[in-house]
Amino acid sequence: MTSKKATPSPAVLAGAEIELTFDDLLSNGQAVGRAGGMAVFVFGPLPGERARVRIVAVKPKYAVGEAIELLDASDERAEPFCPVFGTCGGCQVQHLSYPAQLAWKRDIVRSALQRIGGIADAQVSPTIGMLDPRRYRNKMSLVAERSAAGFGFYKQRSHDIVPIEHCPIVQAPLDDYIGRLIRLRRDGDTAGALANVRHVVARTARASQESILTLTTAEPSKAAERAADVLLSSLPGAVGITNSFDLSSENAILGRKHKVLAGRAQIEEVIAGIRFRISATSFFQVNVEIVERLFDFMRPRIGPARRIVDLYCGSGTFALFFAKAGSHVLGVEESQAAVREAHANATLNGLADRALFRCGRVAQALQQPQCARALGGADLVFLDPPRKGSDPQTLAAIAGANVPNVWYLSCDPATLARDLKFLMPKGYDLPTVQPFDMFPQTGHVESLAMLARRENR
């Protein structure tokens, strides 16, 4: 017997206009309503709101709509503060009040742990947020318009460009650069230097008030090199300009090769008394205030003279924090550039005797004698993997070494839940899950899961 696909109700045919009440909000900013037995996803509304929507696409199991008119507004609705919110893909929830954002992100983490991890009794603490959830990003990646002499960010779920002149999410020096770069791209003396630029990646440091920029081009840019001193003097606080080239793909934001065009390639940031020299391309957190709050949260829980293995350690942000707190740390990271920065920053802070770093893919590195010995003797393993999470080989090595404590910092609740589902049956309890709002106004949430072996609790 052949089964027939369910025929959508007339209410959810493409082009139909219907009224919907919404009861959920996804991390991408889409609200969820139901019509004709199908979920309908729409950007704009919030849970508890009712809106008139037009159905624009119908799939076998869901439909997508666009909001036409808001009929009933939630008390948690806020006025977006950016004129391109809803078009630009950078923010998803500026229309949700900040206290509501923090509560929603806690629910996202709890739901993922329950649905994906099967952790029904997960204790997720209230989200730790910012004092002012604007102007927090210390890094921005501008996209150059091809047909006009402007810059912008990508649209939601697209490589189309939203032209901008300001961004209220980046720190003030970077926001100021947007207008200046637009004017430089239109000025006859500097237009040629920016004509073939695809992206501008800029980073600023709160402590030093210094900034660095890299211009991404397909090939090394002689025009940018000739005008680099003029560009540098036109950007207040900028101390260096580099050229990124040799792209791995058409839409790559950074190239595989870099050349200093003017000034220097690094700036200095200070967090909790630790000095970090970083470039525009460094593996370094974008929200310094929340990194400080993470440090404050972890510091009293570390204990004295710990032996720590820091996996996916990037440029050593957390490894150096642990070392400064008195621990001996081995960091593992596959990026050679990040490991070089980690070594240099350990020396800069006088921590080279307590913070060592090894370059390699984590799963393979843990099979090497030095890393295997460190793992076997570790009091604590700290993981900060990319969005895709860790891998079974790494998790199995941690569990097999009977590491007493595993602290897992994740930027994706779904992959965190998946990896915890692997670890917990291997003898670990999960007494603490603490979300941090590293990316206000977005659907992203950072979570610190602190596991402990049952016999050591």
How are the SSEs ordered, and which strands pair?
Layout: E1 17-25, E2 30-35, E3 38-43, E4 50-58, E5 62-72, H1 98-115, E6 139-144, E7 151-154, E8 161-163, H2 172-186, H3 191-194, E9 199-204, E10 211-216, H4 222-233, E11 238-245, E12 257-263, E13 267-271, E14 274-278, H5 288-302, E15 307-311, H6 317-324, E16 328-333, H7 336-348, E17 355-359, H8 362-365, H9 369-376, E18 380-383, H10 392-400, E19 405-410, H11 413-423, E20 428-436, E21 446-453
Parallel strand pairs: 3-5, 10-11, 15-16, 15-18, 16-17, 18-19
Antiparallel strand pairs: 1-2, 1-4, 2-3, 4-5, 6-7, 6-9, 7-8, 9-10, 11-12, 13-14, 19-21, 20-21
Helix pairs in contact: 1-11
CATH topology of the largest domain: Rossmann fold
First CA to last CA: what distance? Answer: 56 Å
CATH class of the largest domain: Alpha Beta
Total helices: the number is: 11
Structural write-up:
This protein is of the alpha/beta class and 457 residues long. It folds into 3 domains: 10-72, OB fold (Dihydrolipoamide Acetyltransferase, E2P), CATH 2.40.50; 105-131 and 283-456, Rossmann fold; 139-271, OB fold (Dihydrolipoamide Acetyltransferase, E2P) (Beta Barrel). Helix content is 26%, strand content 29%. The chain has 11 helices and 21 strands. It has helices spanning 98-115, 172-186, 191-194, 222-233, 288-302, 317-324, 336-348, 362-365, 369-376, 392-400, 413-423, and strands spanning 17-25, 30-35, 38-43, 50-58, 62-72, 139-144, 151-154, 161-163, 199-204, 211-216, 238-245, 257-263, 267-271, 274-278, 307-311, 328-333, 355-359, 380-383, 405-410, 428-436, 446-453. A 7-stranded mixed sheet has the order 8-7-6-9-10-11-12, covered by helices on one side. Strands 17-16-15-18-19-21-20 form a 7-stranded mixed sheet, sandwiched between helices. The model has no long low-confidence stretch (mean pLDDT 94).
